Amino acid sequence: MNRIAVLLALTVGLALPATASRAAELVMFERPGCTWCARFNAEIAPIYGKTDESRAAPLRRIDLNSRLPADLAGIDPGPFTPTFVVVQEGREIGRIRGYPGDAFFFGLLDRILSNTGLEPKGS
User: Fold this and answer.
1) Burial class for 81, CB neighbours closer than 10 Å (0-12, 13-18, 19+)
2) Pairing of strands 83-88, 59-63
3) Are 95 and 57 in contact (CB under 8 A)?
């Protein structure tokens, strides 16, 4: 019986780090026909998945014409599109309202990530 208890404790202990700190994600709230969303799609979207920022906070797109997923129920998307919200463990940790252009986007995102301890690996 003691051996089973030790094995169970080890299994739970090994599983905790993976579930306790769920990865962050960059949630992009968007609408069809949004001009600034189209600019983001042209300037940033093609390269985002290859960046250190993407490894720290992968991009997740949410169409505001659809229902919000249950895991984002506590996040207010706001009135502007696009709105980018860094979410970790169901909690907002930073936001970029609108698309500021390719010259400023990564700087703003890096500031959010570094202020929360999610600094991109290459920074």
Assistant:
1) buried
2) unpaired
3) no
